[in-house]
Amino acid sequence: MTKAALRAEFLKRRMALAEQERSRLDDLILILFQQWYWPDQLQMVLSYWPLRERAEPNTFLLTDFMEFRIPELRLCYPVINAKASTMEARLVDMDTDYVKNQYGIAEPKTEEVIAPIELDLVLVPLLAVDKKGYRLGYGKGFYDRYLSQVRTDCYTLGISYFEPVEEIPERDEYDLPLNGCLTPDAFYEF
């Protein structure tokens, strides 16, 4: 199976989940997240805005929990530059305004850029993940390029409604494995 076919299959599987079922799965993911052994000194987190039209897991539940548990937590969201094929983390707060980019992703309208080496945890969007931690994203490569710049002790965590597949096809030297992936049924460490 090709990456394109696997992308289409997992997007179709996610879109087939009824909203009520996705909400139930989001709750199960949150329960496991609350039981997770947190990285030491967790202070700076890069999350992402979940796309309802792509039935992505609700990361807001996770970030709300982290902000409750760690009041001094600093939260960032990505802003991409499609022409340069780059991404950067922008610091957000309760007053941050967002605007949708050309892919329909809400991006913060803030100016404070956080360097990749300052991040302690990155929540990474994906369509599928394999048993070695390699993820299948939407194919633009923004996250792979960005994750190559984070510290080696920065924890990269995927969020998925589905269990890992055996292997992501057509991997190349730019593909980086995640440290872990959270599903409704289990927490996988790679």
UniProtKB/TrEMBL annotation:
UniProt keywords, alphabetically: ATP-binding, Coiled coil, Ligase, Magnesium, Metal-binding, Nucleotide-binding
Residue ranges the record marks as coiled coil: 1-28
Domain of life: Bacteria
Family classification: Belongs to the 5-formyltetrahydrofolate cyclo-ligase family.
One Pfam family it belongs to: 5-FTHF_cyc-lig
One GO MF term: 5-formyltetrahydrofolate cyclo-ligase activity
Cofactor: Mg(2+)
Entries under PANTHER family matching the protein: 5-FORMYLTETRAHYDROFOLATE CYCLO-LIGASE (PTHR23407:SF1), ATPASE INHIBITOR/5-FORMYLTETRAHYDROFOLATE CYCLO-LIGASE (PTHR23407)
Keyword Amino-acid biosynthesis carried by entry: no
Protein name: 5-formyltetrahydrofolate cyclo-ligase
EC class of the enzyme, as a word: ligase
Keyword Transport: no
EC number: 6.3.3.2
Catalytic activity, as annotated: (6S)-5-formyl-5,6,7,8-tetrahydrofolate + ATP = (6R)-5,10-methenyltetrahydrofolate + ADP + phosphate
